[in-house]
Structures are given as structure tokens and as C-alpha cells.
TrEMBL record:
PANTHER family: SOLUTE CARRIER FAMILY 22 MEMBER. This is Solute carrier family 22 member 3. InterPro entries: MFS_dom (IPR020846), MFS_sugar_transport-like (IPR005828), MFS_trans_sf (IPR036259), Orgcat_transp/SVOP (IPR004749), Sugar_transporter_CS (IPR005829). GO terms for cellular component: apical plasma membrane; basolateral plasma membrane; mitochondrial membrane; nuclear outer membrane. GO terms for molecular function: monoamine transmembrane transporter activity; neurotransmitter transmembrane transporter activity; quaternary ammonium group transmembrane transporter activity. Residues 110-516 form the Major facilitator superfamily (MFS) profile domain. The gene is Slc22a3. It catalyses: guanidine(out) = guanidine(in); (R)-adrenaline(out) = (R)-adrenaline(in); agmatine(out) = agmatine(in); L-histidyl-L-proline diketopiperazine(in) = L-histidyl-L-proline diketopiperazine(out). Keywords: Cell membrane, Glycoprotein, Ion transport, Membrane, Mitochondrion, Nucleus, Transmembrane, Transmembrane helix, Transport.
Amino acid sequence: MPSFDEVLKEAGEFGRFQKRVFFLLSQTGITFSSLFASVVFLGRAPGNFWCRIPGAAELSERCGWTLEEERNFTVLPLQLGNESVTGECERLDVTWDSSASCSSPLARYGNRSTGSLPLAPCLGSWVYEQPRSSVVSEYDLVCGNAWMLDLSQAILNLGFLAGAFILGYAADRYGRIPIYLLSCLGVGICGIIVAFSPNFTAFLIFRFLQGMFGKGTWMTCYVIVTEIVGSDQRMVGIVIQIFFTLGIIILPGIAYLIPTWQGIQLAISLPNFLFLLYYWVVPESPRWLLTRKQGEKALKIMRNIAKHNGKFLSPHYSEITISNEEVSNPSFLDLVRTPQMRRNTLILMYAWFTSALIYQGLVMRLGIIGGNLYLDFFISGAVELPSALLIMVTIDRIGRRLPFAMGNFVASIACLITAFLPEDIPWLKTTVATLGRLSITVAFEVVYLVNSELYPTTLRNFGVSLCSSLCDLGGIIAPFLLFRLAAIWLELPLVIFSILAAVCGVLVLLLPETKGISLPETVEDVEQL
């Protein structure tokens, strides 16, 4: 009885069939990255806004004021009395009623200067020049409520975290394709509900669920792609990252063309329904079927793969051998029970956490320099493209470990240099920081590949999902780490990033090299790497 890898080699390790499945599933990367980074445009600044004086709406309607005229009557007198007050979070503590004059609504308060009039905090009565452009204006996430926008991104990352555990486990137990399709349906439905949420609480609940299902689509499609190709072709795990970057590059174009946040939300959510058509063209992973003692189904799929690849599978094959390991419901203990598995798991968890923390930290740091939001975001995404090309050139020549370690070491050095460069040469600081972004992206993309190659088939999806959950934890911590430490010293976050990356670079050198090695089928295979 032949092994699975022997049958795969005979059927074609990366023929027409695998290329088609790879291309179809890679589209998931575009929608997932759009969801991942969407808060930048869903929560963009709403333009000019001010706090409305009680009774101003009725008076404005009676007097036929434009928004600009209402703002002049509301904000200008406030600023004349106190130039430091913007009128966004405070208002004059007055009330306009039917007796107020259209030409001078403050005349009833006599000759007192506006500076002597008391001020009151604004409590939910804001007026926006662009009322539907952002969730900020939709749910009044300004002034004392501004932190709620950060909360929405933290909730999304919590959804990613939940998806890594729940759907990662489900994909190992119930199959890759059923969970992938369920996740695509969930992302689409929750995305629509998010766009039409009646209040901010509903927005958060369904954004959490969209994050959970979104993580299910991304992790499951990645595992399927790596499981249906030969050991010499698993670079497709790196190439699929290019589609994630394409989503980052496309997103600002979508946001530029669609003026409302609801439109942007629908544009990044609705394409997930198209992925449901994959039910008829993407088969279940034959590797997974073999681990669930469904050899006949696996062999049928392999014969179909061979047919599409123009190959011929021997009719004498009646069974494919794979591990004799008993299949059980995976748990964290399975990942740390044996010495090599334990070492790999702990190092990979740290690598995921560090890569995500530094990656998002550097993205946010470049984002606060101002300028054109759409152009800056596009450039920040384009910077990531060379990383995938760099990996593709080196990974099959020198292996996984060295690019993995060098990505961390170069990021560490770049962050440290950037921290101590003088402020009067901003172009050089930005260039070196961009080099750090490119390098940590290399490390981020290699960890995907290495993670899937260091776990046996029975634990692969669960192992990748569990370890990558530390990525989501890093994403939750990154904004707080960046802004809290920057309040102490602006460049302190870069020093912390440098230390974390250097430690990660040393640790990944302790991992086994997986270049050209068949995917392990059992825990014993991992122990012998």
C-alpha cells in the first residue's frame, strides 16, 4: 500500500487541479485582510463637527439656516470667548427657544460677553458635516467616547481569537471544507448586520462574530492549500500571503470610491457569499479524510486530482497508508505532551505574538505622520509585496529557519536605529522604519508556513489556529503598548520592539528545518524531524 505522499507525487504535486484550488482559495486573503484593516476607513475622521445647543435644530429649521450658518452662531461666539475651545466637546450652557432671534440668537443674554457665559460638556448632541461617512459620526464616537473606536478593533481581534480556538478545533474534527463554507456564510451575514446595526452594542456583537468567522475562512483555506500540494510545492503558503497584501492595497481604492462606511462594510463582506460556490469545485482535504479513516473518499479525490492533472493513478491502489495513530479530539495537551512538539509550540506561539505586535505597531506608527490617508495606506501595503518575493527567492534555496531568523534580526536592528536617529532627518527615520516593516513582514509570512509544517495532520489545523491566536493577542495589545509607552518616551516602543524581535530571532533557530521534508502525519514523525 503506497503512502499518501507517494500517491500525491503520482497524481501531480502541483498540477492544474491544485493551481485552480489555490487560486480560488487565495481570494479569501483579499476579503480577510480588508476586514482586518477596515477600521482605518470605517472609523476615519468625520470632518468638521460641533456640539449643538439645545433648541438649535428647531431654530435652524425655523430660520432656514445652512449647517455653516448654524455652526457660525454656535461655535464662533464660543471661540471668541475662549480661543482654546473648539466647540466639539463643549458648548455654551444656554438654550434656544421660540423667542430666540434668527439674526442674533444670543441677544437675549444681554451685553454679557460670550466669555462670561458658562460652558457645558456635550452629551450626545453633535452635528457632523459628513454624517454617514464613518462609524464615528454614526455612533458619536467622539470626545469622551473616542476610546470606543479602539474598543471596536479590540473586539474584532477577540473574534479572531475565538475563531482560532472554536473553528480551528471544528475544522480538525468535522472537516476543512464544511467549516470553511460555514465561516464564509457567517462572515457575509454578520457583515450585512454590522452595516445596518441600530446601535453601537449590536455593531460590536456582530463585529466580534464577523471576526470569528473571518478567522475561520483564512486559517482553513490556508491549511487546505498546504495539504493538497507536495512537499516541494509548499511555497504556495507564502504566495497566498500576496493575496492578503493585495487586499491591503485594494482597500483604500474601495474606500475612496465609496463615500459611506456602510457601503465600505458591504463591499468587503458580500464577496464572501461567492465563496459558497466552492462547494462544487473544491474537495475535502484527502489528508484529513485519511486521518478520519475515510480512505475510499480520499482515494476517489486523488483519482480526480490525477485526472485533472493529466496523470494516471494505478488502478491497483485500493488503500492509501497513513498514520496508525488513533484519532482523538485535539487539545492543547497534545501540542505539549512530547519534547519536540512542546518546544515547537512554545517557540511558534512567541513568534506569532511578536510578529503581530511589531507589525501592527509599525503600521500604526507610520500612520500617525499625517498626509493623504488613502495614498499612505496604499504605500504601506505595497511595501509588503517585496517580502513575499524575497521569501520565494530564498526559502527553497536556503531553507525556512534562516529567512525566519534574519527577518527578526533585521527588524530588531531597524527598530533600534530608528529610535535613536535624530528628529531633524525624518525621511531617514521613515526609511529605516519601513525596512523594519518589510523585515517583520518576512518573519510574519514565514511563520505561517513553518507552523503548518511542524504539526502532524491530525493536529495541524488545531495547532496552526492555537498558535496563531497569539497573533490576535498581539493585535489587541499593540495599540495600548504603542501609545502608553510613547507617552513616556516617543521612541520607547521601538526599543521594546527591537528586544522582542531579537529574542524571537534566536528562538526560531532552535526549530527544525523543514525544507523538502514531507508533511508529518503523526506526532512520532514530528519527534524525528
